[in-house]
Amino acid sequence: MSASVCPVPPEQRPINEYQELQESWFFSWVTLEWHQYLRKLAWVWAWSWLVFGPVAAASFPPQTAIVPFFVSGAAGASLILTLVVIRLYLGWFYVRSRLIRASICYEESGWYDGQTWEKTPEFLAQDQLILSYQVQPLLKRLRRTFYGLALLVAVDGLTWICL
Predict the structure, then answer these.
(1) 11 within domain boundaries
(2) Segment 20-43, tens digit of pLDDT
(3) Is residue 3 domain-resident?
(4) For the whole model, what pTM was predicted?
């Protein structure tokens, strides 16, 4: 991609934004193998207990109410995990929206000089391939993760109702 063909600054080109997310410490979690990805999410959930465990313990002493303690702590920890998954989804969805469009909005030197560039057929084809084979599967994984979290919270809620 030469600058004469594409006037968009390199850091604002969709393919470079994609590569930046792919190499990012946080956003690259989604690109890991399933077991590594789930391990990262479990790590976040476990660390979230540091915040919600004491809150749950203040409401439900673990010595006398272990199930309500665990259910409320798990719900709080799941909230943090849900926010993390939403953040991952939004980052990858932004790149998806940049790849799917036939034109790119960009700034040459600051917020006041926005421009739009129509992608050439070659750029559009390249972006569509990356979108189809790289980004869409990641978004699908994040949607599945979100559905799993929703199921976890639903089970947590049903357990709470059954208490």
Answers:
(1) no
(2) 999 999 999 999 999 999 999 999
(3) no
(4) 0.90
